[in-house]
Amino acid sequence: MTSSEPKTLTVVISDAEIRRHADGEIRQLRDTRHRELRFRYSTTDRTRGAWHVVVGQVWGKAGNFPGINTKTMLATLPAILARRAVDARAKSTTTSWRTAGHLLEWYLGRMLRDRGLSTKRKASAKSALTCHLLPRLGDLLLADVSKAELDKRLMWPLQERYALSFVRSIYGVLAVAFRQAARLDMLPSNPMSDLKYTDFVQTRIKPKPARLRGDDLPELLADLANRFDQQPVEVILALMMLCHGTRLGETRLARWKNVNVSTGQWFIPAADTKTKSEHRLPLTEQASALLSRYRAHQSSTGYTGPFLFPGSNGSALSASKASTLFASLAKGEWSSHDLRKVARTAWTDLGVDYMVGELLLNHAMKDLDATYIHTTAESLKRHALETWHQQLDNLGLMALHTGTLPGHENETNTPQPLMDVASSPLQSPSQGRMQNDEVRDSSRPDAGPANRGRHTCWM
C-alpha cells in the first residue's frame, strides 16, 4: 500500500494524530520522519491499533497502541531498525516495559489468573516474586539484564542465605517469566535465553536425607494403632500415604466415591494430582479392611459426607490443616513426604520393578514408558502393593486393620507369623491374596461377618 492510496495517510505520527483520524476511514498512518514506521487502526475498535516496522517490504509487528504510545515507539525504533538491518526478518517487538520489575509485575498478574496452576503453585511463585525477585531486580533496566547483574543482585546473595534448592526454585520463576514474555512477543529478545542455573551455582543440590527409615516403622505403626480411636483422620491419612506412596495433596482430597473395595481400586482424578494425570491404585485386602474400619468409625460419629478426610465448611482437609496434623503426629521428627520416601525405598528392597515403582508414585512418564505401563503394569502394581502390605503386616499394620492393639491379642487367636517377604521371592497376586485370607481367617474367628464391609463400593 502506498501513500497515494486513499486509506493511507502520511503524517508526523503522534498520539494526537492517531486520535484525530480515529473517526475517519483512514486504514493506516505512515510517518514522514521514519518511512519504515506504520500505524494500523484496529478493525473492531478504532481507538486501538498496532505498530509495524517495514524493512525491504517485510512487515514486523512492534506492539499495540495505546499500550505502547508514540513516544515509546519512536524511542525504541532505532534499536529495531538496527536489528532489522542485520536480519530483515528479525523481531520488531518493542514494549512499554523499561525495567525487569515491569515484566515481573506483568507475570505476577498473569500467573495468578492462570487456571492451569494449582493454588499451591501460585502461592509459591507469588512468594518468590514479591519477596525476592521484585525487591532485588525491580529497578534493573531490561537493557541491563545480564549474567553479571543477575549474579550480583540475585543469585550470589541468595545462595549465602538460603538452601540451594530454594535458590534454584526462585531462579526458575524468573526464567519462566522472561520466557513467557518472549514467547508472546512482548520482548524483542530474551536476555535469559542462553543462561542456566549452573552458570551461577555449580554446587550439586543433594536430595534431602530421609528422616524415616524402615527400622522406624514398627514403632510408628504401634504409635498409630494406639492413636486410632482419638485421632483417626491423622492415622488413616498417614497410613494411606505409607501404604500407597501417595502425595499429601492427592491423599487429603480423596473421596469415598473413588474408593471401590469391590473392584479393589482407588481412583485419583487428574485434577487432584501433581502431574495432572489420573492415577489408579490397587486396594489390597489390608487396605480394604483398614478403610472399612475407618468408614465405620466415621459413620459412628455421624459423618456421611463425601470425603475421607473432611475439613471445614463441607470441603476436604486443607493443605495447611493437613500439615498441622502431621506436625503434631510426627513431633517434628519427620514429614509427610518421608512416608512416600520410605515406601519407595522399601519397594526397591522388595525387588519391585523400577518402572512399576515410578507408576505407583505417579511420576511423569515418557511416551515409551507410558506405553509399557498401560500394557503390562496393572497386575504388577497390585503384586507390588500386596507384597509391601504383607511386609507392613509383619511390622505392625495388622493391628490397625484388625483393630487389635499390640499386646492385647487373644492368645488362642494369635496370628501366625507371615513369611519374611523381604528375603523371599515375590509371589503372584493370587498367592498374596490367598495368604492374606488364610492368615486373617486363622487369626479371627469372626473374620467372615466383620469383613463383609470390605466388599462395598462407597458412592
Describe this entry's structure for a reader.
The protein is an alpha+beta fold and 459 residues long. The chain folds into three domains: 8-86, Double Stranded RNA Binding Domain, CATH 3.30.160; 100-199, DNA polymerase, domain 1, CATH 1.10.150.130; 214-455, hpI Integrase, Chain A, CATH 1.10.443.10. It has 16 helices and eight strands. The strands form two sheets. Strands 1-2-3-4-5 form a five-stranded mixed β-sheet, covered by helices on one side. A three-stranded antiparallel β-sheet has the order 6-7-8. Helix 3 packs antiparallel against helix 4, helix 7 (217-227) packs across helix 14 (367-402) and helix 10 (285-300) packs across helix 14. The protein is elongated, with a radius of gyration of 31 Å. The protein starts with 7 loop residues before the first strand and ends in a 9-residue tail after the last helix.
Strand content: 5-15%
What's the pLDDT, averaged over the residues?
82
* Strand order, largest beta sheet: 1-2-3-4-5
Which topology of the largest domain does CATH recognise?
hpI Integrase, Chain A
Unreliable runs, pLDDT <50, ≥5 residues? 1-5, 410-457
First and last CA, distance:
67 Å
- Characterize the overall form: elongated
Helix content: 40-55%
Spatial extent as radius of gyration: 31 Å
The CATH architecture category of the largest domain equals Orthogonal Bundle
Which H/E pattern describes the elements? EHEEEEHHHHHHHHEEEHHHHHHH
CATH 4th-level superfamily of the largest domain: Intergrase catalytic core
The count of β-strands is 8
